Amino acid sequence: MSGLRKWLRHSAAVAVSIAALAATSATASADTTIKWLHLENQEPVLELWNQIVDEYEQANPGVTIDMQFLENQAFKAKLPTLLQSSEIPSMFYTWGGGVLKAQGETGVLRDITPALDADGGKWRNQLNASSIDGMTIDGKVWAAPTQTGVVSFFYNKELFDKAGVDGAQIKTWDDFIGAVKTLKDAGITPIAGGGGDKWPLHFYWSYLAMREAGQDGFAAAKAGEGDGFAGEPFVKAGELAAELGALEPFQNGYLGATWNDALAAYGDGRAAMILSFESTGRTQASNSTDGKGLAEDNIGIFPFPVIEGTPGVVTDNLGGLTGWAVTKDAPPETEGFLEYFTSPDVAKRWSAVAKTIPVTKGVAETITDPLLKVSAEALAKETWHQNYLDQDLGPNVGAVVNDMSVAIMSGQISPEDAAQQIQDTFELENM
Q: In this entry, which stretches build a coiled coil (predicted)?
C-alpha cells in the first residue's frame, strides 16, 4: 500500500464513512481485485479517490482496488487492445454514445441493469433517470453514469479588460469573431488550442454544426436523411470554423499542443480564452506553470455563441455524460464499489474537490463553487444536450470528425470536402 494511502487512514472522516458503508454493503468475497482504469492523475482528485478506495476496502475485507492510469490519448489508443487481453480492467472510464455502443456489441461489457435494480432499485433511485437513459442501449445499461457537463468559453477577465472586450456581451458568432480580432490587435493571443490531441478542436465544428443545423436538422443527419453530414448546415459550420482558423487565433505551435498544453497556456495567461469543460477552474490551475493558474475571480464564462438566422439556440449544449463501464468477467464487487462511488455523500465530496457535476440526485443543487455553478445552471435550463461527437457518432466517424476539425481550422481541407468525408464514413458505419 502506498504511503499516501496509509496516511489517509487516520482521517476521522474516513472512519465515519466506513461505518456508514459497512452497514449497507454486501459481504465481499476474499482475495478479490478490482482493476480500475482511469484518466485522472492530478491532485487533489487522486488523493480523494485513494481515500474512497480505502473506505471501500476497509468495509469489504478481502477486496483490493488496483488503480491504473492512462493519459487521455493513450487510453483511447490502448483500450481496444486491453479489452481483448489478459490485462482487461474490471471497470474503465467511458463517455457513452456510439463508442460505448460499439464496445457493448463486442460482448466485452457486462449489463449492469440487474445491479441497478437490486434491493428494490436502491442504486438506480440515487441517480438521475436521464443519466441512466444516456448509458442505456437497446434496453441494457452498459455503464454507471457519474457526471455530466457542458463545454463553454472560459476567459481571462484582465486580458479582456486590457483589450477592451466585454465577455458578457459576446452573444453571437459575429460578436465572437470581433472579440478575437480585437484581442489580436491588442497583442493578446485570443485562444488556447490543443490541436495535437485533435479532439479539443472538434468542439468548434461540433458547436457550429449544432447552431447551423439545430436539433431537428442534426437528428435528421443522424437518421440518414437528405445529404446527412454533407448537407448545407455542416458545410457552413466548416466555413465558419475555417474563418476562425484563418485569423490565427491560437497560441504558436497549437497544432502540436496537447490538451494539457492548452490548459497551461490559458492558466499562465498566455491566451485569453479556452473552449473547455466545466472543471476548467481546477484543471487550468493544476496545469499552469506555477500550479496556481488564474485566480477564480479573474475567470469569466460565456456559452458558445449563436449564429444569427439559424435554428440553434444558446441553450443547446455540447457536453459529456461520463461514467464507468464494467467488463463481463469483473468481480461482482465492482458494481458495489460503483454504487458507493455514486452515493450522495461521496458524490458531494467528489464534486467539491474535482469541480464536477455528478448525476447523483440532489448533488448539483448543492454546488456553491461560482464557476461550477454557472455550468450547473446552464445544464439545468438546457433545451438539447448533445454528447461529444467523437463519442456519440462511434469511434470511426468520431475519429474523422476530429481529423476534419483540425484540417478545416488549419486550412488543410475545404469545408465541403471535410463534410463529405464525415458523411462517407458515417454511411459506411451505418450500412
A: none
Q: Read off the C-alpha cell for 144.
A: 454507471
- Extended strands (E) in 61-207: 63-69, 91-94, 136-137, 140-141, 144-148, 152-156
Which grid cell is 239?
466555413
Do residues 63 and 137 both lie within one domain? yes
Nearest in space to 299 (alpha carbons), one of 280, 286, 322? 280
Shared domain check, 65 and 118? yes
What range defines the domain where residue 416 resides?
Answer: 152-317+387-430
The phi-psi region of residue 200 (left if phi > 0; otherwise alpha if psi is between -120 and 50; otherwise beta) is alpha
Using alpha carbons, select from 322, 76, 336 the residue that is nearest to residue 199: 76
- In Å, what is the CA distance from 258 to each residue of 246, 254, 264, 365, 398? 21, 8, 10, 33, 18
Record the pTM.
0.87
Same domain, 339 and 219: no
In this predicted model, what pLDDT tens digit does every residue of 22-79 receive, in sequence order?
A: 444 444 445 899 999 998 777 889 999 999 999 999 999 999 999 999 988 899 899 9
Q: State the Cα angle at 35 between 32 and 41, rounded to 5°.
A: 140
